[in-house]
């Protein structure tokens, strides 16, 4: 029953969100090699502790978010917009 | 044991004493006092045998006055209102309540099943595993023929209550509750914490599982302090919920509460829900949940007439019931003495056996001059029932020796009270994984919460003395304790230290010594588990089923751990404790489901044509959340008649179909073309304005994700359509790509699925019909609107889109109408269609025509196929990179032996088959099949049954093979012919022109 503070919508129940995946993957360009893509798509750290993951505020503003969460306690430390320019705008206008 | 009502000076229940109500025990009408629990009412009516035990069918009576009840489980209500496994000790009796005993036949006093008790030594832990693995050597390696035979008898014999199979007539509600401070438990610590917290001006919610607030106050003789505190509580205007169990603690201090609505309230307002499930979010949680008194293992410790010491005090002071006249108390701690004194004052003769060899002078002084016999260094070693009565009549005493216990005498009694220490209720903290430690000095597990938002107060924190409990409540509620700070150490507080006591074993005494009464787990079961190597607490629990009954081992777990520690010769703290799981006490599934049942279980999506379709005899089918028209039967037609007629008329002349559920996404912005060109496998860079293109989207891993047509409406705007199934997932993926991977692309995506109603107009006469409805028929000629052309046109002055696309394989158009005009526009189109031989067709006919054409849908695109597998490899561009283009080239995904899409005909054209059937080479029906069937239909165009499916290597690999279809479940085996998936009009002549 965790709550996530969406930068646009405020603190909402996790049932409004959908989990994406590992937020620290840098997806390679489309013309990258098969091996590079293989690593990006299939190789994952199984983190016991803080990890950055993507969530989408599906039943809200539909933003994709980068959520820093502890996998042991489910404590959330930070929530940012995944879109780097939007996040910058949010910070500038705070 | 024969309980009697006693009159007391206590005034708090005085007025209630006058009020009597009636209830039914096994259909016999009995009287009770208002405010009685079912247990109290049964005891007052001299009903001592209340149930029969889970496995051995032993007679069981009231063992407690609280949630730890292990014996007095009953069924309440009748018919659809039946509620099994109700704890008689915590449920209020109400006027006319039906109460039944459980697991007994023909009656609870004389139960045939109790014959099992005689064979008890055969039913030790692991009995089923050992006995029913198959009888060696006859059944070696073959398993459980014997089990299959005996199972139904065992299932009938073992168990607790039986749930009603009728639909639950009651309603349940969900509620989101928010508060600053939630206090669980309304005993002395809970009330004090609530008052203290309210003084700080914060929002406070107090919840109590009982039907009356007060907790252990209710069990006290002197209620003056309780009165004072309730007056203070009322002053602060605090929300107090009784009959409300905090059953689980979840992340972010979210507490699950189930509130049972008072039956009387519901009698007045019958539409009130039976229960409310509160999802309670609190900033601070104070667990004043108290402690539960334990018993210990000794021979026959489950006889009716044996209960915990504190429960006798509760029955005396709360319900004015003296549980016996000749009472023996067996204890290892101080708490039993006050009860002993009060029972003596109420008129019973009392004998106390204390396992400790010395006790504090203060305790000795207290009982001096009273009719109380005290045996120090003694404990009950065996309870014995009467000649006829199964209730306790005698006990055998054990005396402490240097290295154990020896038999030392006997006493007669009519009631035996046991106290072997107290277990603080730390369950909720355990749910959240708060640290739990074994406290050797007090012989119990203790938790300090998380020191951030979860705190303990009172005896739940292992604090025994009243004043210390009050002090601890003040501290946690007044927030004088800051983050991280340890509570002031007042844990414990006995005058004489408790002497750990988990089992009395005397070699000369035999008989079952229970540790988990509800599941009939005995001390010897634990030793057997140890002997057989199940020494981890988690294995112990599962092998013996200790703590797995409805009470979740509230009493028995600690005893089981202690016995295992003893067998292992290790301290209890080292053996560990199993993590408690919600719910703390059993809760009804109805409360969890709430209003989300039947038609409210999931939302229904209706297309804009829904009402129109229903008015025109459409039969609907669930497609995900959507209700889509399935078929439109004429009089006397069944599904098959209807879809065959619909497909036939569409191919011959004209058919109209609702396709509104397809996903529709507007893709807009200067980089839209670049974006789509990256998404789709085929080129989109040069799609002309006013043209549509069929495209395929892959996942990153190279598998097919979705397909659909995308229409270029202007330079920078496209309308993308998706399959009905994947609409939401495609939308979320597009957003993910734009926001996380390609933030530089200036593209905006918007779902417009609901904004447009779509209908397909298909068949040779489709253009003729459109000519009737558009203002200028030249707009839709073959030249102005060729195959895959898109135009905006005015229909009745409403701007609509017409796209010339076809799923049926016929000359066809899709007309997109703003949703608000869908009803009238459909009526307008349908009226015009009457000039022609025409029909409405549903999902079934749509499926028939797409199978005939070999078009794929979700049945084929199941997440495991590549673009080559479905025969569309040519659509994967070699000249550009797109999502999935790297990984789709992996070795296993490019193997020519992969199963590929094919069409399937029965050799004998009169035969039929079903989806899911397997394809094999003749004579090789065993093992891994060559292929499978994904979709079948009767083809009106071909005049026989046809199917789509996959087969290894595709059509070319099996051309000269003899393929058989096998459907083991339906015993259908037949020869088939593998053909191209394009089974009808393979050249696509009907589309063009």
Would you give an account of this structure?
The complex is a heterodimer of chains A (94) and B (993). Chain A is an alpha+beta fold and 94 residues long. Chain A has a domain at 17-25 and 47-94. Chain A is built from two helices and six strands; from the N terminus they run E-E-E-H-E-E-E-H. In chain A, the strands form two sheets. Chain A has a four-stranded antiparallel beta sheet. By secondary structure, chain B is an alpha+beta fold. Chain B folds into six domains: 4-105 and 297-419, FAD/NAD(P)-binding domain (3-Layer(bba) Sandwich), CATH 3.50.50; 172-292 and 423-478, 3-Layer(bba) Sandwich (FAD/NAD(P)-binding domain), CATH 3.50.50.60; 502-575, BFD-like [2Fe-2S]-binding domain (Arc Repressor Mutant, subunit A), CATH 1.10.10.1100; 609-661 and 755-848, Gyrase A, domain 2, CATH 3.30.1360.120; 663-751, Alpha-Beta Plaits (2-Layer Sandwich), CATH 3.30.70.1400; 894-979, Aminomethyltransferase beta-barrel domains (Elongation Factor Tu (Ef-tu), domain 3, Beta Barrel). In chain B, strands 9, 10, 11, 12, 13, 14 and 28 form a seven-stranded mixed beta sheet that branches. A six-stranded mixed beta sheet of chain B has the order 41-42-43-40-34-44. A six-stranded antiparallel beta barrel of chain B has the order 45-48-47-46-49-50. In chain B, a hairpin with a 6-residue loop joins strand 6 (73-76) and strand 7 (83-87). In chain B, helix 19 packs across helix 24. Chain B is elongated. Chains A and B meet through helix 1 and helix 2 of A and helix 21 of B.
CATH architecture of the largest domain in chain B: 3-Layer(bba) Sandwich
Largest sheet of chain A: 4 strands, antiparallel
Q: What are the low-pLDDT stretches of chain A, counting only 5+ consecutive residues below 50?
A: none
Task: Identify the biggest protein-protein contact and residues per side.
Answer: A-B, 32 and 26 residues
CATH superfamily of the largest domain in chain B: FAD/NAD(P)-binding domain
Query: What CATH first level of the largest domain in chain B would be assigned?
Result: Alpha Beta
User: Helix and strand succession of chain A?
Assistant: EEEHEEEH
The residue fraction in helices of chain B comes out at: 10-25%
| Largest sheet: number of strands, sense, barrel closure of chain B | 7 strands, mixed
How much is the average pLDDT of chain B?
A: 91
Domain module tally of chain B: 6
Rg of chain A, please?
Answer: 14 Å
Oligomer: heterodimer
Radius of gyration of chain B: 38 Å
Beta-strand content of chain B: 25-35%
Mean pLDDT of chain A: 94
- Major sheet of chain A: order of its strands? 3-4-5-6
Number of helices, where a helix is a run of at least 4 consecutive DSSP H or I residues of chain A: 2
In what range is the share of β-strand residues of chain A? 35-45%
């Amino acid at each position: 029953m965790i709550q996530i503070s969406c930068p646009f919508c405020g603190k909402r129940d996790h049932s409004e969100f959908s989990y994406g995946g590992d937020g620290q993957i840098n997806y390679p360009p489309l013309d990258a090699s098969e091996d590079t893509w293989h690593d990006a798509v299939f190789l994952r750290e199984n983190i016991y502790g803080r990890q950055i993951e993507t969530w989408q505020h599906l039943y809200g503003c539909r933003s994709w978010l980068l959520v820093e969460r502890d996998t042991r306690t489910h404590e959330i430390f930070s929530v940012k917009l995944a879109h780097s320019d939007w996040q910058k705008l949010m910070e500038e206008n705070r | 044991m024969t309980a009697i009502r006693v009159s007391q000076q206590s005034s708090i229940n005085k007025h209630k004493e006058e009020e009597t109500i009636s209830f039914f025990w096994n259909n016999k009408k009995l009287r009770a006092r208002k405010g009685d629990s079912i247990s109290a009412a049964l005891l007052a009516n001299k009903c001592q045998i209340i149930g029969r035990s889970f496995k051995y069918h032993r007679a069981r009576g009231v063992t407690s006055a609280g949630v730890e009840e292990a014996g007095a489980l009953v069924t309440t209500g009748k018919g659809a209102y039946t509620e099994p496994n109700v704890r008689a000790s915590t449920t209020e009796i109400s006027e006319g309540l039906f109460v039944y005993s459980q697991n007994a036949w023909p009656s609870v006093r004389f139960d045939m099943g109790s014959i099992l008790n005689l064979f008890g030594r055969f039913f030790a832990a692991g009995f089923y595993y050992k006995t029913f693995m198959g009888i060696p050597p006859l059944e070696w390696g073959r398993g459980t023929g014997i089990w299959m035979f005996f199972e139904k008898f065992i299932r009938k014999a073992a168990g607790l209550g039986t749930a009603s199979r009728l639909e639950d007539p009651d309603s349940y509600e969900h509620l989101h509750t928010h508060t600053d401070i939630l206090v669980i438990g309304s005993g002395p610590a809970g009330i004090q914490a609530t008052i203290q917290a309210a003084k700080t001006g914060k929002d406070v919610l107090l919840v109590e599982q009982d039907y009356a607030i007060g907790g252990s106050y209710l069990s006290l003789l002197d209620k003056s302090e309780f009165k004072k505190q309730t007056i203070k509580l009322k002053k602060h205007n605090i929300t107090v919920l009784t009959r409300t169990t905090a059953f689980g603690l979840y992340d972010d201090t979210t507490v699950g509460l189930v509130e049972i609505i008072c039956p009387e309230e519901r009698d007045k307002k019958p539409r009130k829900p039976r229960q409310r499930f509160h999802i309670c979010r609190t900033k601070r949680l104070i667990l004043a949940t108290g402690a539960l008194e334990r018993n210990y293992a000794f021979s026959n410790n489950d006889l009716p007439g044996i209960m915990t010491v504190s429960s006798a005090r509760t029955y005396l002071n709360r319900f004015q019931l003296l549980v016996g006249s000749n009472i023996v108390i067996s204890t290892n701690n101080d708490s039993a003495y006050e009860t002993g004194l009060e029972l003596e004052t109420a008129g019973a003769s009392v004998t106390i056996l204390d396992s400790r060899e010395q006790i504090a002078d203060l305790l000795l002084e207290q009982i001096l001059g009273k009719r109380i016999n005290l045996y120090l260094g003694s404990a009950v070693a065996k309870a014995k029932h009467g000649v006829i009565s199964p209730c306790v009549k005698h006990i055998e005493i054990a005396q402490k020796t240097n290295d154990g216990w020896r038999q030392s005498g006997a006493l007669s009694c009519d009631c035996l009270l046991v106290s072997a220490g107290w277990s603080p209720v730390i369950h909720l903290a355990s749910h959240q994984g708060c640290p739990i430690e074994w406290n050797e000095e007090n012989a119990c597990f203790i938790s300090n919460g998380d020191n951030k938002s979860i705190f303990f107060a009172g005896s739940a924190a292992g604090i025994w003395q009243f004043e210390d409990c009050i002090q601890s409540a003040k501290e946690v509620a007044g927030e004088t304790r800051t983050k991280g700070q340890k509570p002031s150490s007042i844990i414990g507080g006995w005058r004489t230290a408790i002497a750990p006591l988990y089992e009395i074993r005397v070699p000369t005494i035999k008989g079952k010594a229970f540790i988990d009464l509800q599941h009939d787990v005995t001390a010897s079961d634990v030793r057997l588990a140890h002997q057989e190597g199940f020494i981890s607490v988690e294995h112990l629990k599962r092998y013996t089923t200790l703590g797995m009954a409805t009470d979740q081992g509230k009493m028995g777990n600690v005893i089981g751990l202690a016995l295992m520690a003893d067998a292992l010769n290790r301290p209890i703290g080292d053996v560990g404790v199993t993590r408690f799981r919600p719910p703390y006490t059993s809760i009804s599934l109805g409360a969890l489901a709430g209003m989300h049942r039947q038609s409210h279980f999931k939302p229904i999506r209706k297309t804009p044509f829904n009402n129109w379709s229903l008015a025109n005899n459409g039969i609907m089918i669930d497609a995900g959340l959507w209700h889509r028209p399935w078929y439109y039967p004429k009089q006397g037609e069944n599904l098959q008649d209807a879809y065959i007629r619909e497909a036939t008329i569409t191919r011959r002349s004209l058919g109209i179909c609702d396709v509104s559920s397809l996903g529709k996404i507007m893709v807009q912005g200067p980089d839209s073309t670049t974006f789509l060109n990256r998404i789709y496998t085929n080129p989109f860079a040069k799609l002309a304005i006013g043209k549509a293109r069929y495209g395929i989207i892959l996942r990153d891993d190279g598998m097919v994700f979705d397909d659909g047509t995308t229409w270029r409406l202007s330079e920078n705007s496209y309308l993308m359509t998706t399959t009905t199934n994947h609409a939401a997932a495609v939308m979320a993926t597009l957003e993910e790509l734009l926001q996380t991977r390609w933030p530089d692309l200036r593209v905006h995506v918007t779902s417009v699925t609901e904004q447009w109603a779509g209908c397909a107009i298909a068949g040779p006469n489709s253009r003729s019909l459109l000519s009737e409805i558009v203002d200028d028929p030249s707009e839709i000629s073959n030249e102005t609107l060729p195959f895959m052309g898109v135009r905006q046109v005015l229909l009745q002055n409403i701007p609509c889109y017409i796209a010339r696309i076809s799923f049926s394989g016929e000359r066809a158009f899709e007309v997109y109408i703003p949703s608000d005009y869908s009803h009238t526009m459909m009526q307008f189109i349908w009226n015009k269609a009457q000039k022609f031989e025409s029909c409405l067709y549903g999902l079934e006919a749509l499926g028939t025509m797409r199978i005939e054409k070999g078009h794929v849908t979700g049945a084929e695109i199941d997440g495991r196929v590549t673009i080559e597998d479905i025969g569309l490899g040519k659509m994967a561009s070699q000249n550009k990179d797109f999502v999935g283009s790297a990984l789709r080239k992996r070795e296993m995904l490019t193997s020519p032996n992969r199963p590929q899409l094919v069409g399937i005909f029965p050799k004998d054209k009169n035969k039929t088959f079903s989806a899911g059937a397997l394809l094999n080479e003749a004579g090789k029906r065993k093992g891994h099949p060559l292929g499978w069937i994904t979709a079948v239909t009767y083809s009106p165009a071909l005049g026989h049954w046809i199917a789509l499916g996959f087969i290894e290597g595709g059509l070319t690999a099996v051309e000269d093979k003899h393929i058989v279809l096998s459907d083991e479940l339906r015993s259908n085996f037949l020869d088939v012919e593998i053909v191209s998936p394009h089974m009808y009009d393979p050249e696509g002549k009907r589309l063009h022109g």
